[in-house]
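Moderator note: this is an archived Q&A kept for reference. The question asked for a predicted structure of one protein chain; the sequence and the answer are reproduced below.
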Amino acid sequence: MATKDAVLDRAVDLAREAALEIAEQPADVGEHLGSTLDGERLVSHRFACEARGYRGWQWTVTLARVPRGRVATVCEAVLLPGPEAILAKEWLPWSQRLQPGDIGPGDVLPFRADDPRLVPGWTPSGDEEQDLVAIDELALARERILSPAGRDEAAMRWYRGAQGPTSAGALAATAACSTCGFLVSLQGSLGQVFGVCANEWSPEDGRVVSLDHGCGAHSQTDVEPEATQWPEPDPLIDDLRLDLVAPAVEPVVAEVEPAADVVELTEPVDAVTEPAEPDASVEPTSSVAIDETEQPAG
């Protein structure tokens, strides 16, 4: 069993110089925290790290010497975490680190050829030209489709989520989505359990919901009107605001006085005066002769 090495234990200054060489600033190397015997003629000295962001870390310098030697040699100098050091979380690959909702606008996921949620939508024949003709005739728009495992995974996620039968809104609802007129059914096996809500007043509008889900915007539900408990408010009059209203223009009626030469008849006319004799000096303008026998009687 290795015992303490007096030569290496006394080489604290040599170990500090090695730590200063790898530190960015001399002030980053703190007090000496002790030494550890790693093996025969092998000792590690530890110094406190005073650099910002490395609380609890230690500068570790390992020294060694040859047999029967009296001079210490630096083997390595590193920065290692201590018992109370702040450490980052264990590194995970991106495929395990990403969570639903992390993908934002402009983000693109790498292609996964071995995605277990997808299977080939058609089997290539080996002839590229023949495959293209088959794709056009069969109207295949997808090279891969949802696999049974992917379908089951999606169904369990939807059914156990906020659009399933166990959410707070579904438990408080009086009717299920299966009887709602706003439910749009899905095709395939998923349509036996799920549909899409098309009610703009529903909190689930545009989302996949289970048939036994429910909300307060069901097409067949109704509530009895209740009288308001608020008292009738008094009319509010704003004394600080004046409304300028244009006055109404009345039509002006002019009073017409009777002419001075108009004579009012107070007695009925008993006789009709005969017309005056025509003036002989004025020539008639018409060639029609006047028959005196057709004159009215006096």
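Archived answer notes: Helices lie at 6-9, 12-22, 94-97, 128-138, 148-160, 168-172.
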